[in-house]
Amino acid sequence: MSSIIFMGFTVPDNVISKILESDPNMPIQTHKFAWSFVEALSCNGVDVECISSDPVSNFPLYHQRFFKSHKYFSKNLNIKTISFINIIILKHLSRFFSSFLELFKRRSLNKTIIIHGIHTPFLLSAFISKLLFKFKVVVILTDPAGIFNRHDTDFTKLLKRIDKRVVLYLLDKMDGSITLTDSLFTDYMPNRPNLLVEGIVSSNSNGVIRLDRTSNITFAYTGGLYEKYGVKNLVDAVISIGDPKIRLKIFGLGDLNEYISSLARKSELVSYYGFVSPDNLIDNLSDVNVLVNPRPVDLDFIKYSFPSKLLEYMCAGVCVLTSRLPTIPSGYDDYLIYLDDTSVEGIKRKMIELSTIKIGDLDSLGSAARNYVLSDKSSAVQGKRIKAFLNSL
């Protein structure tokens, strides 16, 4: 196996930047993972060609109705984006026909198809191509099927329930899976070969450059600002402490935008920066001592979730405080500080506890975490594992 067709949502950085300016669902993690995966294969000698779709919400949540096909060459990668109609139902149909046409053009090639995510149009076009042209098909499972979001109508939810049934049927016909967690494998493709890859970090990722230290301790959170992620409890904990030496920086967008910005205007303990691009984020963490992932562990989707931000945090070289998610492998334990109570009071107690630890000790733990993920979860290491798995099918 020396070449693959990577089907998903891999687009150049300038394209995703434009989408992020107005898409409320912010597909930034999809973008990051896709490029990390492609880099992992490329640096292990695998030729990758991308058939992609622009990762946008349905109209009118995203303003554009029609997308034309484009060819890009980005980061030494050939990308063909497909045309589609960005209107519910028509979106799935047009993406199916466009993606199948691209696979039909490549029918004489002896390639493996890797599908990034549970997207029915891609699954269906790959399944038909597998039957007709003998492609092997592997699916990357990063999330469970049929997830509802706050913008879904009753009609949309009905369509998602139907879509999930189709997805489960198609997944059972594929050749293998690559999953972020064991539960994604056991619940969706238990009868097919599987490789667990909880995440990939770029070998070229930058760590923070430290500023001169003060007596303050600064915590930070980056990502979606939603109460279900524990963000409100985190902000309320800092306000409740009321100590000017314990501060919090927030980066991201979500339902809590106004709540957090309002608090930030009233209190110097919380600083709110809105959305900051990945390229600029690392520069904003130079004075941060602890990065926090306060996600509660009692949510239904937790068993499917390995938060990509955990690897990003560790790669930054900053000490990481995280809830004890059941999907975190034991190999991470020596490099993380665990938060066993994600209530306001639980977070408050842990922040006060960490404020008594020497800043140098926190920095040392952050550096050790960075070294761990760069040596064990880097593009080169994970790509070697992925390539071996694909060759075994």
Brief synopsis:
The protein is of the alpha/beta class and 393 residues long.
Q: What does the model show?
A:
With 393 residues, this protein is of the alpha/beta class. Helices cover 39% and strands 18% of the residues. Strand 8, helix 5 and strand 9 (176-179) form a beta-alpha-beta unit. The longest helix has 18 residues, at 154-171.
Strand content: 15-25%
End-to-end C-alpha gap:
10 Å
For the biggest β-sheet, the strand order reads 4-5-2-1-7-8-9-10
How helical, in percent, are the residues? 25-40%
Number of helices: 13
SS-based class: alpha/beta
Low-confidence stretches: none
H/E order of the elements? EHHEEEEEHEHEHEHEEHEHEHEHEEHHH
Shape: globular
Round the Cα radius of gyration to an integer and report it: 21 Å
Question: How many DSSP-defined strands?
Answer: 16
Biggest sheet layout: 8 strands, mixed
List the helices and strands and how they pair.
Blueprint: E1 3-8, H1 13-20, H2 28-42, E2 47-52, E3 66-67, E4 70-74, E5 77-81, E6 84-85, H3 90-105, E7 112-116, H4 120-133, E8 136-141, H5 154-171, E9 176-179, H6 182-188, E10 194-196, E11 217-222, H7 231-241, E12 246-251, H8 257-266, E13 270-272, H9 278-281, E14 290-293, H10 308-315, E15 319-323, E16 337-339, H11 344-354, H12 359-376, H13 379-392
